[in-house]
Design a protein that fits this description.
Blueprint lengths: L2 H12 L2 E2 L9 E2 L2 E2 H6 L11 H14 L3 H7 L1 H14 L1 H14 L18 H40 L4 H11 L2
Antiparallel strand pairs: 1-2, 2-3
Helix pairs in contact: 1-3, 4-5, 5-6, 5-7, 6-7, 7-8
């Protein structure tokens, strides 16, 4: 799992500067919103936000911070999905999808105990993931990924239903973030 490749893919998909009137995130460059850039100390115009700053933010906030590098060492596809979903919806939401999917796939706790949906990667989430993959193998990783993406897709639909302005983004979210 190469974080630099994942970041390059995100930046290529997100493109340069945007400030869509329907986007609650406001001015964005390289996929980093102005609010996130400001929280990380950037005070300039988002049109000039440096790519290297975006790379540092992606590594710190969306890879190392939530523990996705550790997940990627165990299950590379799951780590990559958490990273991408975390960028788009926030790491707690992405982690919650993983935890919910692991609980739903444990066959009523016959394979491993349910874990709390605390939306953080910790020892219980890691143990559940390892137990699931030990039992289900490579095919299990693909199934877990599908479950997480199903939760993500349902959230996108809900966001568009609750705020019609989000319909402007729904097609792109589904096309570029799911599968």
């Amino acid at each position: 799992m190469n974080i630099d490749s994942l970041i390059n893919d995100v930046i290529a998909r997100e493109g340069g500067y945007s400030d869509h009137p329907a986007d609650k995130g406001g001015p964005t460059r390289w996929g980093v919103t102005q609010a996130v850039a400001r929280a990380q100390g950037y005070a300039g115009d988002m049109r000039c936000f440096p790519r290297n700053d975006a790379v540092r933010i992606y590594k710190r906030i969306y890879w190392d911070g939530p523990g996705y590098a550790t997940i990627a060492d165990i299950a590379p596809r799951i780590g990559a999905e958490l990273f991408d979903t975390g960028i788009n919806m926030g790491p707690p939401v992405a982690t919650g999808f993983l935890q919910r999917a692991l609980n739903a796939l444990n066959r009523e706790q016959r394979d491993y105990a349910d874990i709390g949906i605390d939306r953080r990667i910790g020892p219980r989430t890691l143990a559940a993931l390892i137990a699931f993959l030990r039992l289900r193998g490579v095919k299990g990783e693909r199934v877990l990924l599908k479950a997480m993406e199903a939760l993500q897709g349902e959230r996108y639909l809900t966001l568009a239903e609750q705020r019609p302005a989000n319909e402007a983004f729904l097609y792109g979210w589904l096309a570029n973030r799911i599968g």
